[in-house]
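FIELD: query
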Amino acid sequence: MSYRKSLITSAALLAATITPMAQDADQTPQQRLHIGGYGEAVFSRNFYSDKYLRYTDPTSTKDDTHGRFDLPHVVIYLGYDFGKGWSMGSEIEFEHGGAESAIEIETEEAGEYESEIERGGEVALEQFWLQKTFNRALNLRVGMQVVPIGATNAHHEPDQFFGVYRPEGENTLFPCTWHEVAISLLGKLGKHWSYTAMFLPGLDSERFGNDGWIHDGSASPFEFKIANNYAAALRIDNTSVPGLRLSISGYVGNSFRNTLYDTSNSKNDGINGTVLIGAFDFAYKSPRFIARGYFDYGYLSDAAHISKFNISMSKNSTSKRQTVAKNAITTGIEAGYDIFSLFQSKHTIGQKFFIFGRYDYYDSMHKMDTGTTKLDWCERQKVTVGVNWYPIKEIVVKGEWSDRIFKKQYNNEPSISLGIAYAGWFM
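FIELD: result
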């Protein structure tokens, strides 16, 4: 397998089936350099309120609506093969258009200089790693990498899911895209097995919450990632059946004390905040039909203590100061059929037009620890139907109607969304 194909696999599948090989010695520097990426532009009309009261006082926000234009993700991949088994990969991501700020002179305030934020969003270095390839079965990678837990982290490019937005369950409960400075071993065993084993810093329980469970636990407000605790992650993929990929992944690591906040009080003795995640996902693809699905279950030890600890923190802290659940769960499935495959014409050659349906279920407060109370609105379902049109392989135009479904005391959240995205390589 060429390094170019390997790098594409590495960036697109995020270490699920990586088998990089040394580049031929006669290749030019330009041939060793690989540039690609993906990007999404979307519009949504949401037929529900975006006010913070919509769950605490649902009747007051029943008839509210709002619309949004957004650039959820714009990503640039950059990779280079140095030769002799050494390679580099990187990924720069602009979320929601990036962040913009400027210095301006305020004419109404005596000409004072002021700093203003002109656009929200984030700019992040999501991947930067160096890799040494020993053979197709053994590669050592060090640096910022995606943690391939669950389907969405491992396959999050816009041409790898049908919806306008990423599958909502995993995107809500887990860091997504989950990336850490880590050490990993990865490779391909035989024709049909591949693996990634990773050593990485633990999550920070100070940043856990009710709506997103551990979602924000991988972030750090500091210039460094605190690593008082450590964790391990493993992903295994199998492709023995033609067209079918079966994958399992798991994570284990402690999260309490992974903070700069003082935890030396004797009341915290024996508190670990161990996070365990088990995940299964699959993808089946034939010339006309695609189906994908996943099931994930998560556990947090000492959830009641962590909840109490976080709620008591200062309002100036980075903590959400919320109750966090002992268990969280999510599952989802989607399937689509290419109707252009039913007929051929000169206008549809090389194109695909999928009609799809999707179902997601997720509950960030699935089971509570003793002494904590569940918020019923954290149990959600989402039904989505729509279309994906591929005028060419690298471009997809998406349209969907979806409805987020809650228990009867809350208002459901229907919406329509349109999007256009690309995923490909420039050189």
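FIELD: remark
The chain is about 10% helix and 50% strand.
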